Amino acid sequence: MSNSSKRLTRDLMAARIAAEFKDGWIVNLGVGMPTRCSDFLPEDREVILHAENGVIGYGRNATVAEATPYVVNGGAQPVLLTPVASIVHHADAFAIIRRGLLDVAVLGAYETAANGDFANWRINGRKGGGIGGAMDLAVGAKQVFLLLEHTTRDGLPRLLERCSLPLTASGVVTLVMTDLGLFEPTGSSFRLHEIAPGFTVDDVQQLTGAPILPTPDLREVTI
Amino acid sequence: MRSKVVGSFEEAVAGVENGSSILVAGFGEPGTPHNLVEALYKQGASHLTLIANGAGQTREDGVITMGNLIEAKRVARVILAFTASTHPSRKTPLEYLNEAGEIEAQITPQGTLAERIRAGGAGIPAFFTPAGVGTEVTKGKEHREFGGRTYVMEEAITANYALIRCWKADSFGNLVFRRSQRNFNPIMAMAADCTLVEAEEIVEVGTLDPDLIHTSGIFVQRVVSIPDAGGRLEIPPLSLQKTAKNRP
Predict the structure, then answer these.
(1) Shortest Cα–Cα distance, A75 to chain B (Å)
(2) What would the DSSP string read from start to end of B157-201?
(3) So what's the ipTM on this one?
(4) List of chain A residues whose C-beta atoms are within 8 Å of the C-beta of residue B231
């Protein structure tokens, strides 16, 4: 790793994944890092944000002055509504998900695997967990993008050949953004499309629990 | 028309017996019936079953939550989409009791939870969903294939009581929710034998536009006015400090 190597910030990761949203997409942003994406929506595209609590068409996070006790996103954070906003109840919010109307769900995760599995609801040694809407989103959305740090606090890889934690869903992940780059699970490996500035493919491979295959046109992460 | 308005939260929860099952609405702050939860806490019923999105945290700002009921060992069983805090460092009373085997904690995907409640309120005993198939939360449940895809059967939830918070109610119990206050409230109101509502404002019958009512009063048994609704509308400073950005 060169001296200039520095892992990507959470805002940069959120902005990069948000740049994937296409015009007209309906998008659900999961609790944690993914909700940051609402601050980085591409300005040239109309993207409808859907939340589990039935808020359809919310926008960026509210400031202290703008926040109201009535409008929160799926992470229970105060947000603003856009002019196209509508409200449905919780069961209808999930009907939208199971009906297949979401183009993508962006979720956080503890682990993901080359076969497209991911785990984000229970860590080892704990009896309880937090599923939230993740299992419904994972099987309902047309695509699942993950936003997660590349390694654990102890430096262990979160991108693996097979998940070790209890799964949220199998074989659904299509894109993975970490603080080291942008990856696509291929079944047996992770294809590396974009890499954090200052890092080499070998650096990334050493921090990954599955084979990394750089694309021929590998470039630095760009927004 | 017989008015469903009762004079106090204490009166609203007076009949709740030991062993009752209770749906508690709310998602984050909006639509959470804090006053009824507090009244239930003071009322003393125990061996309760609570059904909610999450029932973890106790708070330091004086607001009584389901976490307090759990901490006081008044709850025998919970059905939730979150049975542990998302941050391992913030361990909840529920997690301690769950690990000690002193409470039965059933975790369910949030959409499955919502649909189980909706089905309960709609007279449908069970349904099939793809959520959770292939994971440990659906182990041992009946699976079936439809159109080449595997689904799991989930059973409806009904309960003795629902605790609801709304924006406006009339004295017949017709309810209107504001923005994301709606969340679980309308479906929980339909799935309970006795639906108790705290309302930020109670108006005369005939005032609300029938086309714009979210929950029909036929699903509601008791309504209480929140006397200091203004005070309750304050966003808890903690949640805002954590989430709202200080923009120029």
Answers:
(1) 8
(2) --EEEEEEEEEEEETT--EE--GGG-TTHHHHHHHEEEEEEEEEE
(3) 0.95
(4) none
Q: Which domain holds residue B42?
A: 9-129+157-228
Q: Does A39 touch chain B (CB under 8 A)?
A: yes
Task: State how many domains chain A has.
Answer: 1
| Domain CATH number, residue B224 | 3.40.1080.10
List of chain A residues whose C-beta atoms are within 8 Å of the C-beta of residue B82:
129-132
A52 catalytically annotated? yes
Q: Chain A 121-140, CB below 8 Å of chain B: which residues?
A: 122-123, 126-136, 138-140
Give the pLDDT score at A223: 82
Q: With helix as H, strand as E and coil as C, how does A111-150 read?
A: EEECCCCEECCCCCCCCCCECCCHHHHHHHCCCEEEECCC
Asked if B96 and B121 touch (Cβ cutoff 8 Å), the reply is: no
> Is residue A119 one of the residues assigned to a domain?
yes
Among candidate residues A52, A111, A149, A194, the one labeled active-site is A52
Taking only residues 84 to 123 of chain B, the set having a beta carbon closer than 8 angstroms to any beta carbon of chain A reads 84-86, 88, 94-95, 98-99, 105, 107-112, 114-115, 117-118
Report CB contact under 8 Å: B111, A61. Answer: no
Span A37-75, pLDDT tens digits: 999 999 999 999 999 999 999 999 998 889 888 999 999
Q: How far apart are CA B16 and CA B75, in angstroms?
A: 13
The predicted structure's pLDDT at residue A106: 98
Give residue A63's Cα distance to chain centre.
23
Query: In which band, very low, low, confident or very high, does the pLDDT at A3 lie, cut at 50, 70 and 90?
Result: low
B245 versus A7: the higher-pLDDT residue is A7
d(C-alpha B225, C-alpha B162), whole Å: 16
List the CATH number of the domain containing A183. Answer: 3.40.1080.10
- Selection from A126, A57, A69, A181 nearest residue B91 by Cα: A126
In a domain, A171, yes or no: yes
Domain that residue A159 falls in:
12-220
pLDDT of residue A1: 60
What's the pLDDT tens digit per position in A152-195? 999 999 999 999 999 999 999 999 999 999 999 999 999 999 99
Q: What pLDDT does residue A4 have?
A: 63
> For chain B, which residues score pLDDT lower than 50?
231-248
Q: What pTM did the predictor assign?
A: 0.95
Window 152-191 of A: residues touching B by CB (8 A cutoff) are 166-170
